[in-house]
Amino acid sequence: MSCPFRLILPVQKRFLSRIPSVEMILLPVFLALAIQTPQGNPQSGSLFPEKPQEPAIAANFTSWHGWSYLQGAAPVWPKIYKTSGDWSDIQAHFTALKPGKPSVWHLKVVIFTRTEVDGKDANGVLREHRGSIESVQLAKIRIALLRFNAYVAAKFDGAVTIVPDVQVESEWMRDSGPDAFGPEFARRYFEARINGGSYEAEDKVFRGPFNSVLYVLPGSLPGDLHDAIVNDTPVAAVPSVPLGPDGIGQSFDTAFRAAWMRQVWARVAMQGYKSLTVTAPQTESTDPWPSVTNLDEVTPQTNLSHLNSVLELHPALVDPAELNVPNLPATDLKVAADPERGQVLKVTELSGFREGGVALPARADGAPIAKIDAAPTLSFLVKSTSKDPISIRLDSSDGKTAWISIGRDPILVTPMPGASVSSVPFSPDGKWQKIAVDLRQVAKPAGLVDVVRMAIEPSPNAKLAGKMQPDPVDYAFDEFKFSSDQAGPLVAPIAPSATSEDPEARALLAATAKAASPELAALLKDKSELVRLNATTAYIGFKDHTVEEQLISNSLDLDPSVAAAALAALMAEGSDTARAIVKRSVSVSLSDYAKTTAANLLAQTKDPKCADDVSRLLANRSWQAHVAAVEDLAQIPSPDSQTWRLAFIGMSDPAVKLAVTRNADATVDRVASALLWSAVNEPSDMVRAESYIKLIASPVAATKAEGYKGVRDDSRFVRKVVVAYLAAHPSEEHRGALRMAIADRSAQVRAAAIGGFAALEKGATFDEIGNVLDDSDSTVQLALLDFSKKRSMKLPQKTVDAMVASPDSRVSTAAKALLTGAAN
What we know:
Radius of gyration: 31 Å
Number of strands: 24
Number of helices: 31
């Protein structure tokens, strides 16, 4: 059993790197060796976490004076957090597995180590959210992937094994919008990188078809990203620090295997099954995994037999049992001496991510520790020098939760849905401060009726934001108390101000500016990146020659987004000096993002003289810069632009080749020659498909004939894409190719060919579609019914009768409707 851990450079549109690209990281050889054969791995013990133990509560915690809010009741530490689980059964079963011939699940995994999402928050402030996976967590994810392979082997008693293809993408990936890094990103990134059909390239490197693709994103997400289908392959995202819908942390192992199980179901559904169930082990049952892992088209008879069937998977073991604990290992909790207050509670986050938490003692009798109407004020003392806010979590007896953020809760473009967070003023100056908050203000939006327990943890939004400063998150607390004392104010709403010490107020003023002003100009050199970004962006819409010098300075800002905004503002200003700076920036900017922004701004002018300037991106190491250059050059109408675009086809990255192909002009002889070569030899399905399509679009008959050969490509996915193009761009010249496609061994291709005939002005004769009139595949039958309706062509009675009798309700219903329509 092989384990192709491979180094591949990845795709797409404008996810431009923030800094010059770092070399891709190949997973260590020892990891590949460890995962090669799941059965009998002598080092398997190192893959599994130790059996979880409930953290011990120090003796001096029970007697600490700070628990006075319990009013003398016996304390209990609520077990509100989950550990990674008990893997001892999985480990034992995995170690005992004997060599066999399991079914193979080819899994592609891409770990994105640098991401950035840009967008405007509810107040219109433009924000950058950056995420990263550093070496320590990357190592943990690698081990988790190995552990997942062992889990699958043990879980299903060696019947299936994961063969992973793991890639680490270290370029900065950028996206925007509410579905950032979701299905559309997946399509753009993976379409050139994974094959949907079988094709054996000369280099013998496996590029698909994969059973599924999983990609890991840095940090946490505010909700689940929808799964995608790319090149007929299920694709799903997994955050490196996953959160549940309540904002509480989850295990990466749990999130990863849940995403994979969704993909198992997606593959089963592709074969026509009604549903999938995971049942108790059975000793006498047919092994379902050959069917589950099958990537070939099933026969029409097999597909129909699956229609009302439930595929059963029979695991040998249950999933690792999680253990509920009062605090997570990522958080250190202790009672320690303080020179001012004696014994105080100290909470320190030990992880580089906001993923910890610790429960405070509750009443052992389960009674509320506070009734909000009777004791509406929660007060405590706190001190810290941490810029990252921490929160007091309040849980109600009716299951509702609210958080009180000590200091302003992070403001996000997309906050955690449903998370109720109130912020109290706090200065991280290392001095003791008293916090007194009116719980009625906190309880009302959250729906709390009382407080049964408290915890100290990052709020859900703080987890999404990640650490804002590299310093340790360290807080000290004293004198927790519920009372009817006077409460202090919550953090006031942000008001725009150019002179406020709060950068949020300055950023809001810049974001809401309606015209150029001296106050706005001053914010161009603000010490806060957030303020500079919004002020610089504002000048894209305002012309003010007095700020040109500062915009030039900002075009070299260390923050790539600020630099990019400055270039856009300079281009909008339009002076000769400003335009010269934009041209120069293609070469001298400090980040690939700024360089590609400059190139795009020049391309938008459509000035042929700019082709040479844009082509300077060829010298970059970033594949994303190369993609951007090709797309920008395509906007410039000049022979030089075409020449430069063709130069990029020599790049090894499939994303660049796809961009070159999609923007190629097949009427140019040397371009047509390159397309002819790539249509036959490129290992990427999508590059070959787009090469055929470009050749078909050529006005030269000989070139067009070469393009039509795409209907005979080795990969059924390529054949389907090419035939779908013929249907979407009908021409009588396509008829010969459609005649070949309608006899294809793939039902998907045959169905697409029927659609191609339906799109032709003269339709098709019965001779041309004769071989599919008795086709029992549901997809083909549905295409025939659609063809009959569109072309008003009556199908043979024998064909219609077979469709009416089809066990596939989609086919029988459509056939009956066709008969009814004909009768009327």
